[in-house]
Amino acid sequence: MTAKASTAPTSAKYEPSVHNGLWNVRNCMKFSVIIFILHLIAAPTILISALYNITNLIDPNPSESSFYIAAGATLWAGALGILIAFFNFVYLYSKNKADMYLSTPLSMKQRFFSDYLSGLASYIIPFIAAQIPTLILFAVGHFCFDGKEFKYLADIIDDSYTYYTCDFFENAFPIYCRYAVGGILAMIMLYTLTVLILTCCGTLFDSIVHTVLINFFSLFAFALTFDTIYKSNFMLDLNRFFYPIIAWTSPAGAVAMLIMGIGDNLYSYNAIPFWEWSIGVIANIAVTFALAYHFYKKRRAEQITKPIVFRWIYSLMMILGLCFAIIVSVNLDLIFVEGKFDKKFFTVVFVTFLIYMLCEIISNRGLKNLWKGAVRYVITFAAYTACLALVFSTRFFGVEFYVPSADEVEKIYLGYSGVYYDNIYNTFDYYSGDGSDGTVFVIEDRDNIENVIAAQRISASVRKTALKNGGTDGWLEWLDENGGPYNLLDYSVCCVLKNGRRVTRTYSIVTAEAEKYLMTIDASEEYKKQAAQNLKNRFEPYDELYEWLRTTQEQNKKNGAVEDISVDLYLYTPISSWKDDGMYAKKIKMNESFYNELRDALAADREALTEDEYFRPCSDRKYSIGITHILWGLPIDGSWTETMKVLAAHNCFDALDDDLDELLDESNREYTRTIAVERNSESSQSSLLYRAKEGVSNKEYYGGLASDLNIRYVVHYSEDLRKLVEVMQFRYITDEVMYSIRINGNSYPIPPEYSDIAERVFNSAENLNDYPNGTTIYYGIGAVTN
Amino acid sequence: MIKLKGAVKKFDSFDALDGVDLEIGSGAAFGLLGSNGAGKSTVIRLLSGIYEADGGTVEIDGESVFDNADVKRRVFFINDETVQYNGMSLADLRRYFSGFYPNFSNELFDKLNETIKLPEKKTMDKFSKGMKRQAIVITGLACRTDYLFLDEAFDGLDPTMRNIVKRMLVDEMLDRGLTTVISSHNLKEINEICDSAALMHKGKVLFCRDLDSLKGEVHKIQAAFDKKYTKEDFPEIEVLHFEQNGSLTYMIAKGSTEAVEEAVRKKSPLVFDMIPLTLEEIFIYEMEENGYDCKGIDCTNIG
After folding, report:
1. Which of A743, B34, B50, B114 is 20 to 30 A (C-alpha) from B207?
2. How far is B44 from B16, CA to CA, in rounded Å?
3. CATH 3.40.50.300 residue ranges in chain B?
């Protein structure tokens, strides 16, 4: 019999690889439908909840429960990608299916791409389709609800809410785009990793185990390692380096970092910029895909039922798993205690070795090559533990003490609230350091750069000495006992070097010496300008602020509170604040014009203040102002000329109840008050910084106690007392030791030129130590023991 | 034309094929025989492009098979399992395979199904084993490939099913010169369908022969002589086996019918009978001639 030649193609509608892909999509249709439904529950649910919230159709706020439902649905839908990969590549672990699939007329390349892409389509297209209702809801929100308020549960523990004005396209849509694009990339990453694992494993059991464990360990081994290093407080911006690693090395890590960095207005800081996240994830996908294809081409049908076809995947899983076990042990203080190896270390070795060998026996399906596993264990354990030991013992190679020279620095992003804590900087944005919105200060002046570097050197040096002498757990106590107290002033520095590198550090202890350098920044033109802008930026648009108040008021009404809705100015002097235990302030309603004028005046004055005017306010016309929701307790004085004009123009000073005679009248029993004079010493005066704080010592120092303060209580009137009250300040900077006067718990510094008067008043005042416990000495009354 | 030249296949340390040479002409019905582990399935899978040879060449129509979609389009493989089709219906089988094989004929598919009347919509997990086997056979035939490989595809079928399936195969072979390679334990089946066969053992081909000529070459002789003779008394013919039981002499001899008959008649037998051998007997004696003791092989599995 002779063979007939094949006839020309007659019945095939598609190219075989396309036919194969379509067949896979058809087979996975049930998964695709489930994925579609789950994603339909996700983003649209949150949006609907937001819309309901805005229209107050549902109360209480359902957004948190809908968020959890949406998050759960999204995670389930994401996990189904693993199932789809298992379905499409079934012939890699099922002997029964291998003959059927591998005998079909497709080349390996055709089959791989067909199975891969069809699985991806089954996985991603339902997600994309589910966004159509979301986009429709966005359109509805945009046309019907833009500008409306909705509240968001900011803190699950204490049930606090934050209110946002929602502009669907301005605020929510960028977040949504990141969720959509990022979600697709994360799904592709998970799917591709699963395909890679399937090409490397030959049984269903091993494929499942490797998929679960690699996803788990690749996230938690890295995350826990970085967290452990971070908690050791090497003063490094670990987020800058480690968060990208977490994002780029595992699908779960990518999702976690995506969520953390998805929106500026819902989360306090960007873990990693979205563009950077995307590039890393795409690179990961490319590498994983290339590896999957490479190993797929090397796969042979006879390798099915071989547990692990390509051993490296198992080695990778075991390395990650062992590192995870070690780092958990480190966190449980089973390996290191106070920086030294602990004897419990041997227990850890024994247990992990046992488990490791058991895994070797299971993966090898016997005892062969067990010695290789033992060698791998020893190398991994030793290497990782040695790295950790090195990192901890050298405190990340001493890098936290590295400060670049001023010549190397091009500019500095400075997170610094100012010596008076006036300037708000939100969480330091290490990436852009963009100071344009006032969150950080951009320092480019050479003198300023040198001063910041000088401050850094001192802070780093103090820390190094304290760590060396006090150890990682006792360095603060050592500081307190040796040369303290110190000022707890946070400042963050991101030095952008001329070679493009960035060196970022955060310091929380500042010595007086370091503070001197930082203070020069406060007085510089560069800083003043930005500080003025920072102050201006705190003023939200009047109508938005009003709307927020209105929404808050509606919620408060439901709770039984009744308040008027108004944007108010609160104004008090040191004297007027005596009433009501310092809570008294004159309240003045502000209209939009007044509000804007005051904003501009404050900013202009802040920029115009000289160094003397800022650090050493003049004694007359001292006020403290606050504005609803904007600021509280900002001291101003006669130097703030524009502000004074605006306040006067709106009659703010009228009837400000600051009659000194009335308040110093001993016979006035309208309210009780305590007046004390504090004599500070060089040791108690930690820094040159004095500012008033409600109810607490005005001294910002670490660990300092009242025993370092000498306090005496004034009972009787004197002209000297009157003078002190006239000249006392909300805040003052000097390098001389000052007296301070404390009235009803609030301390006010007395400028040094009046120290002799203060001393006289001090010497004539009552010493509380001369009285039994529980005694209070009131002005005009004397000692009263409860 | 199928050609294996020095084909080697190893599974870890086990040599499944150790230098296999085979040539199967177009239109042949070729049987692969051998005990379990002989390497039959391995050869079939090499030819289907499922396995890649570790050495030597495996070619169909002059082209290497592995990872060659063009060649595989001319080949259809039916294995001994049916569980992989459980989730599919007959209609699904048709739809699935018609997308891969450009010559797929719906008419032939329907015509074949008319005979066996399998339900098209029902999933095959509800079929009996025989029905599943029929389903895949008609699908394979409907693909109208040049080559059809069956790996113990008749195992587990009852005689009626076997006959139906065999008839389908034979009809197609006759109609369009389909080249079939059937691997089986069952010598009887091979004998009925195939015109040539190879016997494999431990990864090697012991012999590969046309069945008719094979049968025509070997003869079983039963004779009674008035005196005792030995194997050496018949130098004109090749005696594979010589046995005397009392006055009866049994001989297996190789050679033409005339030469064998003449050699025996020279000795003036009192009784003389030439009996055709079964394929099983031919193979057993051939294996003995090749130095393989039948006792070392599970001959019960060869038919």
Report:
1. B50
2. 12
3. 2-202
CA B203/CA B222 separation, integer angstroms: 35
Contact predicate A589/A567, CB 8 Å: yes
**Residues of B with CB below 8 A from A106's CB?**
69, 72, 100
- Kindly compute the dihedral angle of the four CA atoms of residues A541, A542, A544, A548, in this order, to the nearest 10 degrees: 130
Q: What is the CA radius of gyration of chain B?
A: 22
CA A240 to chain centre: 12
Quote the minimal CA–CA distance from B193 to chain A in Å: 14
Residue type, A119: G
CATH architecture of B2-202: 3-Layer(aba) Sandwich (3.40)
* CB of B26 less than 8 A from some CB of A: yes
- Judged by CB atoms closer than 8 Å, whether chains meet at A1 and B75 is answered as no
> What is the block-wise mean pLDDT of chain A (786 residues), using blocks of 10 residues?
38 82 95 94 81 62 70 91 96 92 94 97 95 89 78 56 69 83 95 97 94 94 88 67 87 87 49 82 97 96 91 94 93 79 87 94 87 93 92 82 92 83 58 48 92 90 82 74 63 85 74 76 89 86 82 64 75 74 72 94 93 78 83 85 93 77 82 83 50 35 41 91 89 77 82 91 90 87 84
| pLDDT, tens digit (0-9, with 9 covering 90-100), for B135-172 | 999 999 999 999 999 998 777 677 887 888 888 888 88
Q: Which of residues 207-246 of B touch A (CB under 8 A)?
A: none
Q: Do B102 and A4 touch (CB under 8 A)?
A: no
Q: Where in chain B is the domain with CATH 3.30.70?
A: 215-301
Integer Cα distance of A729 and A727 in angstroms: 6
Q: Is some CB atom of chain B closer than 8 A to the CB atom of A632?
A: no
CA–CA gap between residue A641 and residue A609 (Å, rounded): 10
Contacting A residues, span 321-360, partner chain B, CB-CB under 8 Å: none
Q: Are A106 and B51 an interchain contact pair (Cβ–Cβ within 8 Å)?
A: no
Which CATH entry fits the domain spanning B215-301: 3.30.930, 3.40.190, 3.30.70, 3.40.50? 3.30.70
ipTM entry: 0.85
Contact across the interface for A4 and B70, Cβ inside 8 Å? no
Q: Please give the residue of chain A at the shortest CA–CA distance from B53.
A: A300
CB-based contact A100 B84, cutoff 8 Å: yes
Q: How far apart are CA A127 and CA B295, in angstroms?
A: 65
Q: Is B104 on the interface with A (CB under 8 A)?
A: yes
Mutate one of A23, A92, A103 to test the B interface: name it (highest B CB count within 10 A): A103
**How much is the pTM?**
0.76
Q: Give B8-52 as a 3 state SS string.
A: EEEECCEEEEEEEEEEECCCCEEEEEECCCCCHHHHHHHHHCCCC
Residue owning tokens 């670049």: A404
pLDDT tens for A666-684 read 888 777 788 889 887 655 5
Does B50 contact A97 at a Cβ distance shorter than 8 Å? no
Q: Are B223 and B268 in contact (CB under 8 A)?
A: no
Is the Cβ of B84 closer than 8 Å to some Cβ of chain A? Answer: yes
d(CA A103, CA B45): 8
List Cβ<8 Å contacts ≥24 apart for B188-191.
B188/B279, B188/B303, B189/B154, B189/B162, B190/B31, B190/B33, B190/B279, B191/B278, B191/B279
Q: Determine what percent of chain B falls in helix, strand and coil, rounding each to the nearest 5.
A: 40, 30, 30
Could you tell me the end-to-end alpha-carbon distance of chain B, in angstroms, rounded to an integer?
A: 28
Cα A213 to chain center, whole Å? 29
DSSP, res A168: I
- CB contacts, 8 Å: A12 with chain B: 98-102, 104
